[in-house]
Design goal:
With about 425 residues, this protein is α/β, with parallel strands linked by helices. The chain is about 40% helix and about 15% strand. The protein has two domains: about 150 residues, Aspartate Aminotransferase, domain 1; about 250 residues, Type I PLP-dependent aspartate aminotransferase-like (Major domain) (Aspartate Aminotransferase, domain 2, 3-Layer(aba) Sandwich). The structure holds pyridoxal-5'-phosphate (PLP).
């Protein structure tokens, strides 16, 4: 089948894409913020809300068993998807943010002392900055930043020297939500492990675009959100190595995470429940199974090849069209080997995510005009204010593509940005 037809078939699974916005067919290019959901996910959410709605792990009746089966089945799907050794390594949370907060609070409480250091990467989302700042403030620790170079790549060459005996953890972004560059996380892990320092990877964007094998990567923690990978909102995953998860204190206390409780003292449930206090979003979590099945289906076989080819085409087109067709555009995050926004055919380590500004145009104004033309993009600080500061800007326009987006949509996007620029100049 032709690439175009394969992508069209994928689109049919997403009812949200068939909508009109402001009288125009919706072109949804805010996938890095949240992806749309395929039918299989929507159907499971509907089915569970309508019928299989019973609290998990707690009851001796069939409906609860069914809900628990779906919930634990999804955990097993996550385990397979990232090749974790065991279900105990897969902790359900409410999102990447919650996963990183859990590690920042619990790991730092266990392993850090006053004067210790946490290393984070300069391309971090606020979710990989603020939790570490909170922990550092509580403990009296310091934060060190691994910088980026001119094109937006991490200065991996500087990492080794930054890792002295005071550094207790490295928290690195897999793919920045602003720059769209795949960071060499395997290398980061290797360098940190040479110093016996564990590594957390913020995989909010990475899990969507890269095949993640946590055992191969050897990261100590990997955090991601379900809603960015075709799943439900309010669900996230923390992968952690058993040796740390077993030693770390619980992050939240409550039902389901306990062994025995007296008024004086509590023993904790074994992993993974030790970190899962209270009634979880069991319906949303269960939908991770069809969500990850879908994610796998667009990576494998003929469909996978077609999606890859389509994404490569879109990346090449966008990296050429942004500077050449629109003009006076600065693109943030360039593929390997590129140092300016000039056109190039290399896609390198770039994913189909494009943050840019047009000289003389306010990013918010451009986005509002695009919305009138049916195009959904994100503008603003992208929850990465320190990174935008280092890029010397206060706002960017970001267009982020998913496997269901087409080259025709990319072309329409460029046409519409051109129109918006004319209106604003
Ligand atoms: N990290 C990165 C790189 C992100 O892109 C995002 C969301 O955009 C997050 C963390 C936070 O994810 P969530 O809001 O789902 O917790």
């Amino acid at each position: 089948m032709e690439t175009k037809n394969i992508v069209e078939n994928i689109r049919k699974k997403f009812p949200a894409l068939a909508q009109q916005m402001n009288g125009q067919p919706l072109i949804y290019l805010d996938n890095a913020a949240t992806s749309q959901k395929p039918l299989e996910v929507l159907e499971l959410l509907d089915k569970m809300n309508a019928k299989v709605n019973a609290n998990v792990h707690r009851a001796m009746y069939q409906l609860s068993d069914e809900a628990t089966g779906l919930y634990e089945g999804a955990r097993e799907r996550v385990r397979q998807f990232i090749n974790a050794p065991d279900r105990e390594n897969i902790i359900y949370t409410s999102g990447t943010t919650a996963s990183i907060n859990l590690v920042a609070a619990s790991f730092c409480q266990k392993y850090l002392m006053k004067g210790d250091v946490i290393v984070i990467t300069a391309d971090s989302h606020h979710s990989n900055i603020v939790p570490w700042q909170l922990a550092a403030e509580r403990i009296g620790a310091e934060i060190r930043i691994l910088p980026i170079d001119g094109r937006g790549a991490l200065r991996i060459d500087m990492l080794d020297k930054m890792l002295d005996s005071k550094v207790k953890i490295v928290a690195a972004t897999h793919i920045s939500n602003v720059l769209g560059i795949v960071n060499p996380v395997d290398k980061i892990v290797q360098i940190a492990h040479n110093h016996n320092i564990p590594v957390l990877i913020d995989g909010a964007q990475g899990i969507v675009h890269v095949h993640v094998d946590v055992q191969k990567m050897d990261c100590d923690f990997y955090a991601f959100s379900a809603h960015k990978i075709y799943g439900a909102t309010g669900v996230g995953i923390l992968y952690g190595k058993s040796r740390y998860l077993n030693e770390m204190p619980p992050y939240m206390g409550g039902g389901d995470m306990v062994g025995t409780v007296t008024y004086q003292k509590t023993s904790y449930a074994p992993l993974p429940l030790k970190f899962e206090a209270g009634t979880p979003n069991f319906i949303g979590a269960s939908a991770l199974k069809p969500a990850l099945d879908f994610a796998a289906s667009v990576r494998e076989g003929e469909v996978g090849e077609a999606v890859k080819a389509s994404e490569q085409e879109i990346i090449k087109y966008m990296l050429n069209a942004l500077p050449n067709e629109i003009g006076e555009v600065e693109v943030y995050g360039l593929p390997e080997g590129k140092v300016s926004s000039q056109a190039s055919d290399d896609t390198g380590d770039k994913i189909p995510l494009f943050s840019f500004n047009i000289k003389g145009c306010n990013a918010g104004d451009v986005a509002q005009l695009l919305d009138k033309m049916g195009i959904a993009v994100r503008t603003g600080l992208m929850c990465a204010e320190p990174l935008l500061n280092s890029l010397g800007v206060t706002s960017v326009i970001r267009a982020s593509f998913a496997p269901y987006n087409t080259l025709d949509e990319a072309k329409k996007f460029i046409e519409c940005v051109k129109r918006a620029k004319k209106m604003l100049m």
